């Protein structure tokens, strides 16, 4: 038996990957990858070179993003495609 959260994650990832790359698509993928709390505490911009710039709202959230970069990048890769986000840069 497959857990329901795995099914939902797979469906969301498949739908996102099929859409053209846009600011909205990156925002949705970010919210799914990091969860609602961290998504509210940050803003993101994907640069043309594949760098995802993350602007946290406080030093606490900056540390959380830095600590979780590897996992976040992996999740974004499954949602957007492995080659879309090449690096994460935490600003501030």
Strand content: 15-25%
Instruction: Just name the CATH architecture.
Output: 2-Layer Sandwich
Ends apart, CA distance between termini: 44 Å
The chain-level mean pLDDT equals: 90
**What integer value in Å does the Rg equal?**
13 Å
Global geometry: globular
State the helix count. 4
Class based on secondary structure composition and strand pairing: alpha+beta
Major sheet: order of its strands?
1-2-3
Task: Sketch the major β-sheet.
Answer: 3 strands, mixed
Domain unit count: 1
The first-level CATH class is given as Alpha Beta
The number of E-state strands comes to 3
Molecular structure report:
The chain is of the alpha+beta class. It has one domain: 2-Layer Sandwich (GMP Synthetase, Chain A, domain 3). Helix content is 59%, strand content 16%. A three-stranded mixed sheet has the order 1-2-3. Helix 2 packs across helix 4. The longest helix has 22 residues. The model has no long low-confidence stretch (mean pLDDT 90).
Short characterization:
With 92 residues, the protein is an alpha+beta fold. The protein has helices spanning 4-18, 23-34, 36-40, 59-80, and strands at 42-46, 51-56, 87-90.
Helix-strand blueprint:
Layout: H1 4-18, H2 23-34, H3 36-40, E1 42-46, E2 51-56, H4 59-80, E3 87-90
Parallel strand pairs: 2-3
Antiparallel strand pairs: 1-2
Helix pairs in contact: 2-4
